[in-house]
Write a structure and sequence with these properties.
With about 150 residues, this protein is mainly α. It has eight helices and no strands.
Length: about 150
């Protein structure tokens, strides 16, 4: 596991922290006996932990472009901030809605929609059947649709 993580984050101390997070998430699994392929399930968790790590890293740095700032100050009517604000609000609502999904539904939906895995690939990664993957994707999308339409 550690070697898998080191190859993906390149810093050993980060890999150690991520390994702890992977095993902490594994310990929170309520019905571990339902996992058909424990290694695939563990690697699925590790993949998500690494992806979240890089997403947090990407948001740590703020780029300041003085030329763009000067241009916006000279002609504030051209600013597209409302579009960005709407996008940010939608992203926050989606993140909040995703966090309310059951863990397995969220995992399956992210494997299929975000990571672009086929149902068969997602089934292997999550240790579930293809039928269960199909069912969870439909259920997760329906729940998200309801949660996002309520706001």
């Amino acid at each position: 596991m550690r070697r898998y993580l080191v190859r993906r984050v390149s810093q050993e101390h980060d890999a150690d922290d991520l390994a702890q997070e992977v095993f902490a998430r594994l310990l929170r699994v309520q019905n571990a006996e339902l996992i058909r392929d424990p290694l695939a399930y563990l690697l699925g968790i590790a993949t998500h932990v690494v992806r979240e790590f890089w997403q947090r890293r990407r948001h740590e740095y703020v780029v300041f472009d003085s030329d763009v700032t000067d241009e916006l100050c000279e002609s504030p009517g051209n600013c597209s901030a409302p579009g960005h604000a709407d996008q940010l609000e939608l992203q926050n609502r989606l993140d909040a809605a995703l966090s309310q999904l059951p863990v397995t539904h969220r995992l399956v939906l992210l494997l299929v929609k975000r990571d672009g895995l086929s149902y068969a690939e997602a089934a292997r990664a999550a240790g579930l059947s293809v039928h269960t993957i199909e069912k969870y994707v439909v259920e997760a999308r329906a729940r998200l649709r309801v949660m996002l339409s309520d706001n």
